[in-house]
Amino acid sequence: MARRRQIYEGKAKILYEGPEPGTLIQYFKDDATAFNAQKKGTISGKGVLNNRISEHIFTLLAQIGVPTHFIRRLNMREQLIRQVEIIPIEVIVRNVAAGSLSKKLGIEEGTQLPRTLIEYCYKDDALGDPMISDEHIACFGWASQEEMHDIADMAIRVNDFMCGLFAGIGIRLIDFKLEFGRIWDGEFSRVILADEISPDGCRLWDAVTNEKLDKDRFRRDLGGEVEAYQEVARRLGLLPEGAENAILDMETHRKKRGI
User: Which of 158, 162, 149 shows the shortest CA–CA distance to 236?
Assistant: First the structure.
């Protein structure tokens, strides 16, 4: 099948026009970036793993009534999604102090927060995705008050579900990033969950050892990025024992064929 027209390329994914109006094909790349793309690299097979992990989590979220853009996975690296109008706000949900929160406030990494903390950042790579408040969002009309209520409610619901999901497989959900978009029905719109949920946008620590199983291994030059992503997929039941080598073999074959 001929490659469809490219709509957008981001740091970790490419969007192509979908087979039907109102749909897109989301392609997961192996590219890895950190610190607002100041650090760049490749994690071999990451796109395949993130595609499966995100499919799994979005499917489970839909089953508990969280509306998402996910329709179905198409192949190892692509999934069919609903086309949405992305709301230019990154939603950061934090359960444990880590990363920028620890640096800014001097809180030791790994400190359990007294309550779940939700932060908002303005989606603009050129500005470094600055943190913003509800007042900024209202002032500049990035989202309505009703939409922000829906976003906050969904973020808490997703967090509650994912904390339980990961706790059941021996992983602490430290924090994660969500994005939302609007879908329209005539003059009316509603907010749904978009983008992806994977180790690229989540901090995931082993519940016993606190070993990092996410993109922090790339950010901090810890090594073992591929193994960490595979471990998350394995614990979720998405990667049978020994399947990691098969994925890499298929990836090598795909690249040789120029697919």
Answer: 162
pLDDT above 50 (res 1): no
- Region 43-51 average pLDDT: 97
Long-range contacts from 241-248, C-beta under 8 angstroms, 24+ separation: 244/45, 247/45, 247/48, 247/49, 247/76, 248/44, 248/45
The dihedral region occupied by 255, where left means phi > 0, alpha psi between -120 and 50, and beta the remainder, is: alpha
Three-state secondary structure call for residue 104: helix
Give the separation between CA 60 and CA 56, rounded to whole angstroms.
6
Tokens of 216: 């922090």
Output the pLDDT for position 248.
Answer: 55
> What does the pLDDT average to over 46-69?
98
**What's the start-to-end Cα distance of the chain, in Å?**
11
Distance of CA 76 to the CA centre of its chain: 17
Q: At what angle do helices 46-63 and 145-167 cross, to 10 degrees?
A: 110
Among 158-162, 174-178, 240-244, name the one with the lowest average pLDDT: 240-244
Contacts with 207 (C-beta within 8 Å, 6 or more apart), sequence order: 167, 170, 171, 172
Least confident of 98-102, 187-191, 254-258: 254-258
All domains in the chain, ordered by first residue: 6-84+225-241 (3.30.200.20), 85-206 (3.30.470.20)
Could you tell me which residues come within 8 angstroms of residue 259 by beta carbon, excluding any fewer than 6 positions away? none
Q: pTM for the whole thing?
A: 0.91
- The 3-state DSSP composition of the chain as helix, strand, coil percent (nearest 5) reads 35, 30, 35
